[in-house]
């Protein structure tokens, strides 16, 4: 990827969350550039150039770099120049990339970040092994960070896998579909956002109380972020998200809007419920129709309201942090999640 593309992407999220705080904006942008260099260098550690190509592919293809940005903003509550801050951000992105390699195999996704997915290009076996390599590389870097970075990373990795396994096995008779959904997304998405913040706080020497507040913020932000992802799967275009539209439905994974439609009794969602309950799955014309109905369902508005409640909870966790530009940036990030289109 060209430096220009990298710089453009990095600047776009930073400039959205840091307004009129020039020192912070340039520090975050500069650190994100170092993260990019380190990410590329990590892929290069795979001695065989063909392996380096695969393990570096998705990170080079794009992404918002939300997790490294969280690490860097968290480090602003201590010493942002402390050794280990950049590598902590790299750990967060490598772990995220590893999870996408595996997720795209599981979802049979053909596109990610606007390019053919790793599984589409190299097949499932290579994609799974390359994901394992990235996770191992993240663990290797964690081992050199301020303790207890490695156990925190192990714990978050376990939660990611647990979330994905829970999604596969589905709800039990005791936990209904909605509590099950929230358990899944808390593990598969919020755990890594929370870890990204915790690692930044830890490396920078910020206090334990600051680390705890940031972790709490990350848990709520992560849940809201995954709900917004579910919403975008229905409302946004493939050109914007770089993924296939309506993928959740087509692989039988119900996002929050579909779950709320199924659980509700709003007469406007009657036809939608019938389509979602189809024993043959939601494919072909049914898929197009279900997406259209979901876009104007009452459930869509309910899902947005739940996302916004979680963002309110995230903002209230921020009140436990010292006021200033980094706290304002994290607050503004809640607005970005509420209004994201990709
Ligand atoms: C995207 O979800 C995927 C995740 C948030 C996590 C996936 C986790 C695993 C595959 C477990 C393995 C983890 C590691 C660290 C190797 P999504 O499918 O809802 O979103 P999408 O639309 O971006 O695909
Ligand atoms: Mg997926």
Q: Would you kindly provide a written description of the structure presented here, covering whatever features stand out?
A:
There is one protein chain. The chain is mostly helical and 342 residues long. The chain has one domain (4-338): Farnesyl Diphosphate Synthase (Orthogonal Bundle). Helix content is 75%, strand content 1%. The protein is built from 17 helices and 2 strands. The protein has helices at residues 3-17, 22-44, 49-61, 66-75, 85-106, 118-122, 124-143, 149-169, 177-204, 208-235, 238-241, 247-250, 256-263, 270-276, 284-295, 298-318, 325-339; strands at residues 111-112, 115-116. Strands 1-2 form a two-stranded antiparallel ribbon. Strand 1 and strand 2 (115-116) form a beta hairpin. Helix 5 (85-106) runs antiparallel to helix 7 (124-143) and helix 5 runs antiparallel to helix 9 (177-204). The chain starts with a helix and ends with a helix. Residues 1-7 have low confidence and may be disordered. Bound molecules: farnesyl diphosphate (FPP) and magnesium ion (MG). Farnesyl diphosphate (FPP) binds next to helix 5, helix 7, helix 8, helix 9 and helix 10.
Distance between the termini: 20 Å
Tell the overall outline.
globular
Count the beta strands: 2
Please give the radius of gyration in angstroms.
20 Å
The CATH topology, please?
Farnesyl Diphosphate Synthase
Instruction: List the helices and strands in order.
Output: HHHHHEEHHHHHHHHHHHH
Helix content: over 70%
The CATH first-level class comes to Mainly Alpha
Uncertain ranges: 1-7
């Amino acid at each position: 990827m060209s430096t220009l593309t990298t710089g453009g992407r990095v600047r776009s999220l930073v400039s959205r969350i840091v307004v009129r705080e020039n020192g912070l904006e340039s520090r975050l942008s500069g650190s994100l550039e170092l993260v990019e260099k380190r990410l590329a260098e990590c892929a290069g550690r795979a001695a065989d150039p063909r392996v380096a190509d695969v393990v570096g592919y998705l990170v080079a293809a794009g992404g918002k770099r939300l997790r490294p940005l969280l690490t860097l903003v968290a480090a602003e509550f201590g010493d942002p120049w402390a050794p280990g801050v950049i590598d902590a951000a790299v750990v967060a992105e490598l772990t995220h990339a590893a999870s996408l390699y595996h997720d795209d195999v599981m979802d049979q996704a053909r596109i990610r970040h606007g390019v053919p997915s790793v599984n589409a290009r190299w097949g499932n076996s290579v994609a799974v092994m390359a994901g394992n390599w990235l996770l191992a590389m993240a663990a290797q870097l964690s081992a050199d960070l301020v303790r207890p970075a490695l156990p925190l990373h192990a714990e978050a990795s376990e939660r990611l896998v647990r979330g994905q396994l829970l999604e596969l096995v589905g709800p039990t008779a005791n936990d209904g579909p909605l509590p099950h959904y929230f358990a899944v997304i808390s593990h598969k998405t919020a755990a890594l956002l929370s870890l990204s913040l915790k690692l930044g706080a830890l490396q920078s020497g910020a206090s334990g109380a600051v680390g705890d507040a940031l972790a709490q913020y990350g848990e709520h932000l992560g849940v809201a972020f995954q709900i917004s992802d579910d919403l975008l799967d229905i409302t946004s275009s493939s050109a914007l998200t770089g993924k296939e539209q309506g993928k959740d439905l087509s692989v039988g994974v119900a996002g929050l809007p579909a779950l709320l439609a199924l659980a509700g009794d709003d007469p406007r969602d009657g036809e939608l419920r019938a389509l979602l309950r189809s024993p043959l799955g939601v494919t072909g014309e049914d898929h197009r129709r279900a997406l259209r109905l979901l876009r104007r369902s009452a459930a869509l508005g309910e899902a947005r309201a739940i996302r916004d409640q979680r963002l309110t909870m995230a903002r209230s966790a921020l009140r436990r942090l010292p006021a200033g530009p980094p706290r304002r940036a994290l607050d503004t990030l809640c607005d970005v999640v509420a209004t994201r289109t990709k």
